[in-house]
Amino acid sequence: MPDTAPAAAGITSADPGPPRPAQGGVASSRPRLPSAHVVLTCLAVLALALFLVPLVGLVARTPLTRIPELIVSPAVVQATRLSVVTSLAALAISTVLGVPLAWFFARRDVPFANLLRAIAVLPMVLPPVVGGVALLLAFGRRGLLGGPLEQVTGVRLPFTTAGAVMAATFVAMPFLVVTVEAGLRQADQRLEDAASTLGASRWTIYRRITLPQIAPSLGAGMALCWARALGEFGATITFAGNFPGRTQTMPLAVYLLLESDAQAAYVLSLLLLAISVAVLVLLRGRYLSP
Amino acid sequence: MRTRLAVPLLLLALLAGACSIEDGGPPAAEPPVAERPDEQTPGAATEASPGSDAVGDGLVEGEIVVQAAASLTDAFADVAEAFSADHPDATVVYNFAGSQALATQIVEGAPADVFASANFTQMDVVAENGLVVDEPEVFVNNQLAVAVEAGNPFGISSLADLADPELVLVLAAPDVPAGSFAAEALEGAGVEVTPASLEVDVRSVLSKVELGEADAGIVYTSDLVTASDAVEGVVIPEAENVVAAYPIAALDEGPNPEGAAAFIDFVLSAEGQAILGECGFVGV
């Protein structure tokens, strides 16, 4: 806390610094600046408290002595393993498909671009349960594609781990697309043009020029996407159902454990939190440090 | 300085103006007066409740917050309608969810007047925390049935038929009342099944069958009354069936104790029981 406050202050006061001498009229607002900082800091602290207090509440209620015993219980291990597998699979699919989609939106002249973009980010605002129902209507046994898919390939998505991955991908990929698209728009295209004039192929340009430029947004997008996939509940429960070891991911296990063994649910939640925080901190440190 | 003062004053004037417009202009002074007796009545009613009972109608008012098991969703909507007809000044507000979630909310301090649980396990959680006024009472029974696709393509007629490995069977999770009852019934009948999913509540079991994703699911008979035409119910023989008793209790920390008592009385009355019966429950 004491670290961040001065840092934030430093940034805000440095930013308006240069332009001020040019426009003298702003001078009168100068004495008010500190109070603005106080107000902003107070609001920021409130915002932090909103996230921190429930976390503290959770930790305070968790029976720390039972953690070792609960953390190795088959139900917890099974759900954790499944969650790691499905969220990473969702991240991999989202990256392979989402980066090209972001490029498509950012670089190609797409007709109805705004409409298509809205559709692509729809899962961010759609209640996940509705997303799950929509997935069922599309890829379920009776769904638009689900029926033919099962007849041709024998693959059935609902109630399978593949279905859980699909549900997680559906809700999580938009976070990656949005972040990477913003990165692509900020990237300096003149560098690509320069490389092009020097005879580099398109693939080489994307690999050597574009990708390094968007690395921070790609990292942030992947972190967001993965975190969303890990926490996914509604679409999974609706589309993939709930079966231990097959589709019962950590959030589903937490929800059901709350009903039978609340303490175990707290431990599992804490584990989920620990994994997410670890990965987010790691990714932030790696990609997003200034 | 002047402008600084003027702005709040102007705002005040605007606010005052808005109020009087909303209240209908001239009798601007009246609404507050009219509101006050309203605010006082709950207190007055508490003190004078024996008096109002003496009047005979025992009318209650205000919000009655009822934490009700998800399986009661449709039945209790009808109950609320009939109850409001008797008590026009009272509004029944429901919070429908799995009984276990409701019990957790109550124990964690959710302000509610009545708890209607789908089993005693969750009611006991609340009672053990000393949060019920009186001993919980069974107000209705429910039984299990098999929900199948319309036309019953798998020709299911008993629990034993659910063991078919080709059949996509969905149950409620064993942590959920409907799931534990289903497990009990299957065990009693000596049937081993391989469910595709253990849903988080009984309504999700039904919706999986309605959507055609599951071929069969074990639900309550009451769920089938309101289900769509896409599903039909297969009666489970009495010998294999399980009776689910639903307990109800007024909550100790509820803000509207009179309302809670009146609501419970209504549910237990002949009229209330008839409504529940129409919705597929078995009266007590």
Outline the structure in words:
The complex is a heterodimer of chains A (290) and B (284). With 290 residues, chain A is mainly α. Chain A has one domain (72-288): MetI-like fold (Orthogonal Bundle), CATH 1.10.3720.10. In chain A, 76% of the residues lie in helices and 0% in strands. Chain A contains 13 helices and no strands. Chain A has helices at 4-14, 33-61, 67-71, 74-107, 113-125, 128-139, 146-153, 161-186, 189-197, 202-231, 234-239, 250-260, 262-288. Mean pLDDT of chain A is 84; it is low at 1-27. With 284 residues, chain B is of the alpha/beta class. Chain B has 2 domains: 61-140 and 244-283, D-Maltodextrin-Binding Protein, domain 2, CATH 3.40.190; 142-243, D-Maltodextrin-Binding Protein, domain 2. In chain B, 45% of the residues lie in helices and 21% in strands. Chain B contains 10 helices and 10 strands. In chain B, strands 1, 2, 3, 4, 5, 6, 7, 8, 9 and 10 form a 10-stranded mixed sheet that branches. The longest helix of chain B is centred in the first third of the chain and has 26 residues, at 30-55. Chain B is elongated. The A-B interface holds A 133, 136-137, 140-142, 158-159, 237-238, 240-244, 247-248, 252, 255-260, 262 and B 98, 100-101, 104, 168, 170, 173-176, 195-200, 204, 208, 211-213.
